[in-house]
Amino acid sequence: MSTSATDSAPREGRTAKAGYRGTKVRRQRVRAAWTYLTPMLVALALVAGWPLLRTFYLSLTDASLSDTAGAAFIGFENYLVYDDGAWYGLLTDPVWWNAVWNTVYFSVVSVSLEVVFGIVVALLLNAEFKGRMLVRAAVLIPWAIPTIVSAKMWAWMLNDQFGIINHLLMALGLIDAPLAWTADADLSMWAVIMVDVWKTIPFVALLVLAALQMLPKDCFEAAEVDGIHPVKVFFRVTLPLITPALLVAVIFRLLDALRVFDVIYVLTSNSTSTMTMSIYARQQLVEFQDVGYGSAASTMLFLIIALAVVVYLYLGRRQLGVDQ
Amino acid sequence: MNQYQLMKLAKRVGLYALIAVVMVYAIFPFYYAVITSLKPSSELFRVDFWLSSVDVSNYVQIFTQKSFVRAIFNSILISVSVVVIALLLGITASYALGRVRFRGRATVMLTILGVSMFPQVAVLSGLFEVIRALNLYNNPGGLILSYTIFTLPFTVWVLTTFMRQLPMELEEAAIMDGATPWVTITKVFLPLMWPAMATTGLLAFIAAWNEFLFALTFTLTDDQRTVPVAIALISGGSQHELPWGPIMAASVTVTVPLVILVMIFQRRIVSGLTAGAVKG
Fold it and tell me: Is this entry keyworded Transmembrane helix (chain A) (predicted)?
């Protein structure tokens, strides 16, 4: 591309030199590119690459938090080991599988809800009405609020004795007695989902809105002239056209949901009914100081997410513009 | 009024009703937190939708608490440093990725994308070792270092998207004048990249300000905490004695600057978010 730069030069005298100059400039640019990439790559290697490799390695040792350097290599015993007639290890731990199930359940339910409501909000923001910019800004507020703060705000609203949600539900006659939203095993997962959905609808809505605004106007006008029902237009025209953007939003959200930590940690702390893989791994690592075992759980989580990333990259390669 | 007009009116009313519902849903929890924070503790446990009187004692209480003020200071220090580092490393890297065609570029891009999708827990034990080896445990430096894992890939990704959209002619002219890549970046691109840098910087700031897992794990003492951790760890005598007034005051305090920033830069944030997620 730099050759064409000199080729198209207005002064003719330069064209003779273009080939030589082009390659020299090109080589200089490629060298500069790698020079400029190096600091970033070194930083990423330090905070991501090396720690990840160490986590893999530590998962094969009996390391504890106070002493990671002197840990003994024990192979896959943290994952699965047969000893004295019984199987042990992470893969036989019912608490771990409960965490896996909770994570999957949380991810599927909240991402589904976020996508449905995100589309509704996006369609709404795409309609023309007075004060649209103001509404768009207001809708962004939940996204801007730190997760910890939103968890605390909702914990207060969901408070079993003094919470406004119970107050409202009782005033409307929907429940007779206050519900213990964050303590009751049957309700706490829904409380967590409620907060997560509230916080992330804006993100999905904005991505969908961006896709909606790039759609060609004329085919919608044509549909309106032909008197086709708006619902039909949505499912036959709009939805297929925004599917690429939707796919990206879904997988972004899914990856986020699979590693969820803070909202659950604050709202329900270490309760088993909402414990996710991240919560489980951190509990083993930090609270129980069992770095080997906790690293094994972290590694499993990483593998699950890596699988999702591979699927994502495969599906989203074109939309992401990596190929260009 | 004929039937057609009536239908149109009904649709209009329905639209505004739906918008009102969405607005209330989006804003109410924050509004309720503000109201709670401005109540005296005696009225805290009565559910009100409006504020009858303003009482700032909750705010006085948290701001006279040394550890909370310190936590705000830590959060500002860490977030600003993270933004500066991410932008410095990001702008040069995005020049390389956005403007130069070289072998291995797609691999680098995919690596960056992969890192941005890392589960933080997966690096927790390894990063813990690195931080301890660098003597940065229980130190803002440890958090600044660890936050690079999510701010840097994001910054590089978004800046690369912006960098690609700059016209080719600018760079061609610079090359014609014999400018080196460094001069091209600093003299030609940088002045044009300010809006994009403000956007990514702001998004990186928000991400760093809100981070919880690393801040919780890599700090030990109250005076090294960041505000999200400080708020999460405010506790009373028991589960039922949580000091909700001060908690809400602290929550509002850390959120108001963000909400104001988001309101001001709303358009930019939307374009930055979409550039980070979907190209184009």
Answer: yes
